[in-house]
Amino acid sequence: MGTNLVEKLKANKIVVFEYDTSSIIDDLNFYALQCDFVIHLAGVNRAENPKEYIKGNIEFTRTLLQTLEKAGNSVPVLFSSSTHVEYDTDYGKSKKVAEGLIINYSKKFNLKSYIYRLPNLFGKGSRPNRNGVVGTFCYNIANDLPVTISDRATQLTLVYIDDLVSELVNAIASKENRINETFCAIPKVYQASLGEIVDLINKFRSGDVIPASMLDFEKAMYETYLSYLSEK
Fold this sequence. Notes:
Blueprint: H1 2-11, H2 25-34, E1 38-40, H3 50-70, E2 77-82, H4 90-108, E3 114-118, E4 120-122, H5 133-142, E5 155-160, H6 161-172, E6 183-184, E7 190-193, H7 194-206, H8 216-226
Parallel strand pairs: 1-2, 2-3, 3-6, 4-5
Antiparallel strand pairs: 5-7
Helix pairs in contact: 1-6, 3-4, 5-7, 5-8, 7-8
């Protein structure tokens, strides 16, 4: 998410302060003084120890908000949450707590709350065998590796990375797709089964699909598939 969003913002001549795991706390302190809008995409979605979810999803969110408050800079914070908040998992619970921190911060400073509960994301830049099944399927099929599916009928709710980035850019301009005073959503969401996804990617591999005739979902999947092909 971060890589694609930063590329889009910079292309639009927007100054971006990037903070990630390679940054230091002094960077955050400085950026908190300068920024006009915060997009918080950081987090831990896979961990062997539940404490990693607390540190990555709750404690960092708290640190971010405290840093903004200390800087005296009451700016909106957009937060990428997850539909996993609906499940009783360590990851879901940590995201739910982080949402609460964002909501309380927004209320305290009378700001709009921007919380996006994201489903499965797909698109260029997704790491195979880590960030989602679509990236894994595309990578494996593009490289003639086997694909294993436990249940072809399993349905996924999917958001394409370019659609997500467009929505986040709109949010900065106060043109977000708002559900209510707390939550926002991506306007374009797709539904597909694991079997349908694999069959479609296999069609790309065999050349059975004509790009000019594709529907939006097929185009998004095709662009994703192309990103995993070698240059040759």
